[in-house]
Amino acid sequence: MPFLRIKIYSTDLEELNRVVEKIKEIVKQTGVKMRGPIPLPTKILRVPVLRITGHRGTKIWDTYQMRIHRRIIDIATDDRTIKLLMRTPLITKPEKIQIQLKYIKDKNL
After folding, report:
1. Which residues pair with 72 in a beta bridge?
2. Contact 10, 37 (CB under 8 A)
3. pLDDT, block means (10 residues), the chain with 109 residues
4. Which ranges of the chain does DSSP label H, i.e. alpha helix?
5. Strand pairing report for 59-76 and 97-104
6. For the chain, which domains are there?
């Protein structure tokens, strides 16, 4: 049975969890099978910046980092569920969240 794979990325964990809960609510409302949310490892991007060059050639570095939280949700395909997901304002226009949808045909949920 084909299914829809939703990958969600965000730097804000609370916003990510809110979107995941909204997706779970829509799926529960329509009654289709769902697997997930599966938390993926957090990606940490580090940027070292030379703050000052100290006395006698010593260097002082600052390190800035950004954490990217990721989740995967698999949903059995249903026209009604997909329409509800696409029309939900929380899903369609997030500011800090990126969402990827992928239709997979040959795998069982």
Report:
1. 7, 38
2. no
3. 87 88 86 88 91 73 91 85 76 74 75
4. 13-30, 79-87, 89-92
5. unpaired
6. 3-104 (3.30.70.600)
